[in-house]
Amino acid sequence: STLMGCVSMEIPRALEPAKIRAHALPDRIVLAGIPEDMDKDEIRHIFSEFDGQEVIVTHDDADCDRFGFASVSFPGVTHVGRVLLRSFVAITVGNMQKVVRMSIGARAHEEPKALMVRWSQVSLAAGYLVELRPVIGGVPG
Q1: Which one of 53, 75, 93, 114 is at 20 to 30 Å from 81 when CA atoms are compared?
Q2: Residue 37 has pLDDT above 60, yes or no
Q3: Per-residue three-class SS string for the chain
Q4: pTM of this structure
């Protein structure tokens, strides 16, 4: 499976913006931190410009502490890639234009980053060890 990147989103809402983290896979984007009153129609509206298809939203009060998860499927990897290339999406809420802000792998105080992991099993290997280290001042940590 392939992880194409991580995205932070700030979605304007009536009371306060929803700050959501997402993981982009080749055929879908998985969202975490969905407010309990956000439904699939609101999420579909955000991703409609990118041909987002099926939207699944789940909230589990016992485990999610008022926040849930969602998945948006897309026709293919190019549609997901178009989402990753955008820094904002204009949406209409009521009769007002609003902006959904998006940044790859960054929170408000972080520098933007991206991660792509492509995994293929090799039949000769008995096991795998993957180590990810931060780069500090141009030198791997």
Answers
A1: 93
A2: yes
A3: CEECEEEEEEECCCCCCEEEEEEEECCEEEEEEEECCCCHHHHHHHHHHHCCCCEEEECCHHHHCCEEEEEEECCCHHHHHHHHHCCEEEEEECCEEEEEEEEECCCCCCCCCCCCEECCCCCCCCCCCCCCCCEECCEEC
A4: 0.69
Structure confidence by residue, pLDDT tens digits, 42-92? 899 889 889 999 999 987 766 545 678 999 999 998 898 888 888 888 887
Residue found by looking up tokens 């820094």 in the block: 87
Residues 6+ apart with CB under 8 A from 98: 12, 90, 91, 92
Write out the two tokens for 50: 């990118």
The token pair at 77 is 């990897």
